[in-house]
Amino acid sequence: MIVFRYPRNPQKRHIKRIVGLPEERITIEGKSVYIGPGEERMLLEEKYLPSNRDFGEEEIILGEEEYFVMGDNRNSSVDSRNWGALSRDDIIGRAVIQVSPFDYFRWVDRPEYQQIAE
What we know:
Layout: E1 2-6, E2 9-20, E3 25-29, E4 32-35, E5 42-45, E6 57-61, E7 66-70, H1 80-83, E8 86-87, E9 91-94, E10 97-98, E11 106-107, E12 112-115
Antiparallel strand pairs: 1-2, 1-9, 2-7, 3-4, 3-6, 4-5, 5-12, 7-8, 10-11
């Protein structure tokens, strides 16, 4: 999870999950997100982030200093699916602890990837 300047209005700050790293290929197929090309691609496992919305099909190849970010509420998040890759220059910091709601303090989870054979 990172904090960054919102690309459409740099005066605003947003927090989202990094899904794709520089020079990776991101493929969105319906409700699934895959990272990497061909047989090497991995399914982004997010059991804690259920989505009931089909996001169509899209493929993005990130540049040397670009990241693909998505919000945890996949059904209504405005993220890289809407405005494209995020530049490294826009990243301000990293989120490590969830403090809201106040009775639910926890470390922020890291996504897990599963190798998918085609």
